Amino acid sequence: MQHHSPWQTIFYRSLAAHEKIPASRYLQLATVDNHGHPHCRTLVFRGFNQDKNQMYLHTDNRSEKMSQLEIHNRAEACWYFSETREQFRFSGHVESISDKKSIGQSEQSKTTNCSPEAQRLRLTHWQNLSDALRESYGQNYDIAKPDENFVLLILHITRVDYLRLAPLPHLRVSYHLDASENWQAKSAVP
To answer: In angstroms, rounded to a whole number, what is the distance separating the alpha carbons of residues 109 and 94?
Structure first.
């Protein structure tokens, strides 16, 4: 059973402090390609499941990151909040839920058929998109059925690195899930 961590309180406080700043919904996601080269891109934060330590993101099945995640499903999201001068790095494995398959339900990247629960979650995310965003996946979209290229990404968070740059002195704390799935914290050098 995963227990809530102090980082969640800090994270939600930072998110609330920036809710009126549209750019604060953007974060960077880093993946690795089949040659071991890192790739980083900006995505929009689409939600968080606090009980399961899961971050939700969306992407297009035709994007490069999908082929990278099929090979290496480990990833890190980096999020900087400018007003509070805080950085969060979320590490874990990414599960991708597409039209008929789910990849990376565990750290070992395996393709499986999507569970009904996963498909319902994907449908909910699809239906919460604006019409303009749904059109970006295909002009003849059906609100009741996600486009085949719409992918829900779930970052299963196992490590969080928190850095506060203001006020001085800087504060850095690393959190990780231990073998019993309890969060452990350790101060680190900024």
So the answer is: 9
Dihedral angle at the C-alpha atoms of 107, 112, 116, 122, nearest 10 degrees?
60
Q: Which region holds residue 127: left if phi is over 0, alpha if psi is between -120 and 50, else beta?
A: alpha
Q: Which residue has the tokens 């002195």?
A: 169
Query: Whole-angstrom Cα distance, residue 6 to residue 9?
Result: 5
Report how far residue 55's alpha carbon sits from residue 20's, in angstroms, rounded to the nearest whole number: 20
Concatenated DSSP letters of 148-171: TTEEEEEEEEEEEEEEE-SSSSPE
Residue-wise pLDDT tens for the chain (190 aa)? 455 788 999 999 999 999 999 999 999 999 999 999 999 999 999 999 988 999 999 999 999 999 999 999 999 999 999 999 999 999 999 999 998 666 666 555 455 667 888 899 999 999 999 999 999 998 888 999 999 999 999 999 999 999 999 989 999 999 999 999 899 999 998 7
| CATH 2.30.110.10 given to domain 6-111+149-188 | yes
